[in-house]
Design brief:
Number of strands: 10
GO molecular function, one term: ATP hydrolysis activity
Strand content: 15-25%
Largest sheet: 6 strands, mixed
Structural class: alpha/beta
Mean pLDDT: 83
Organism: Paenacidovorax caeni
Keywords: ATP-binding, Cell membrane, Membrane, Nucleotide-binding, Transport
Strand order of the largest sheet: 6-7-8-3-9-10
Protein name: Amino acid/amide ABC transporter ATP-binding protein 1, HAAT family
CATH topology of the largest domain: Rossmann fold
Radius of gyration: 20 Å
Distance between the termini: 38 Å
Order of helices and strands: EEEHEEHEHHHHEHEHEEHHHH
Shape: globular
Oligomer: single chain
Number of domains: 2
Number of helices: 12
Low-confidence stretches: 1-11, 119-130, 283-290
């Protein structure tokens, strides 16, 4: 589907990230089936869909936690389908998680610093005696995190607090800070405002817009808050039962009858059963006998 990106993004540019015909199967169950879309540089792309549509499976496949059964993923034109997750992070794919994955006993600052470990060049000897390169890298790291990331996300007042003492909304902000410490070209956010109140959601939306505008970071996010998705996104990809059922600019996707049926249902029970059989690859005869 041909689309025009908002906010000045160039739709004719080569995608920074290209997902081509990606299928992911666990045994006889397909989590993803022929998924394909592109993420343009400098854009905010949202992946939406009902619960169980395959959104987090897609994120895990793009970031390298799952290897697709078939299809390919290209980043900056390079095929990364078989590249391990740590190497993808080093290349510029930084992400947060649907369920907060911070070290709760560590401080905010130490959690954020962990995001930069893939880029550090210190060897074991330097690190052991904290000398030379290790000392210089530590100083540069602290300066970058404290002067840029912590200030940008307005969390200076909690930098030395243990993560376990923070509210849920602040923990989500710290997780975003750790992802930014990875110096990503694409920031992948898995449900960045899930569980947040309205004020926290508005703050996070502002940070997402600012990280694109001020830092030039491309954003790919999974999100259930439709108001936020439609307000922020340049391009929206809709998944249902592991397949892309619609994609385009927010206004086009929002008006798509197939998207409305995916969220609201058609009321036809036989149609729902047929979709479930197709997603699970269960033969019709076996499903009818159940």
């Amino acid at each position: 589907m041909e689309t025009t990106l908002a906010h000045g993004a160039n739709s004719a540019a080569q995608p920074l990230l290209q997902v081509d015909s990606v299928t992911l199967a666990f045994g006889g169950v397909r989590a993803l089936s022929g998924v394909g879309f592109g993420v343009q540089p400098g854009s905010i792309t949202a992946v939406i869909g009902p619960n169980g549509a395959g959104k987090t499976s897609l994120f895990n496949t793009i970031s390298g936690f799952y290897r697709p059964t078939s299809g390919s993923i290209r980043f900056r034109g390079q095929d990364i389908t078989r590249i391990p997750a740590p190497q993808r992070a080093k290349m510029g794919l930084g992400r947060s998680f649907q369920n907060i994955a911070l070290f709760r006993g560590m401080t905010v600052l130490d959690n954020i610093k962990l995001g930069r470990h893939a880029h550090l060049k210190t060897n074991v000897f330097d690190a052991l005696f904290y000398m030379g390169r290790a000392r210089r890298e530590e100083a540069e790291l602290r300066r970058d995190i404290e002067e840029r990331i912590i200030d940008f996300l307005e969390i200076d007042h909690i930098r030395h607090a243990p993560v376990s003492a923070l509210s849920y909304g602040l923990q989500k902000r710290v997780e975003m800070a750790r992802a930014l410490a990875m110096q990503p070209e694409i920031l992948m956010l898995d449900e960045p405002v899930a569980g947040m109140n309205r004020e926290e959601t508005e703050d996070m939306a502002r940070f997402i817009l600012d990280v694109r505008a001020e830092w030039g970071v491309t954003v790919l996010m999974v999100e259930h808050d439709m108001g936020m998705v439609m307000d922020l996104s340049d391009h929206v990809v809709v998944l249902n039962f592991g397949q892309v059922i619609s994609q385009g600019v927010p206004a086009v996707v929002q008006a798509d009858p197939e998207v409305n049926r995916a969220y609201l249902g058609s009321g036809n029970v036989d149609e729902l059963r047929a979709k479930l059989r197709a997603a699970a690859r269960i033969p019709t005869s076996a499903g009818a006998a159940a």
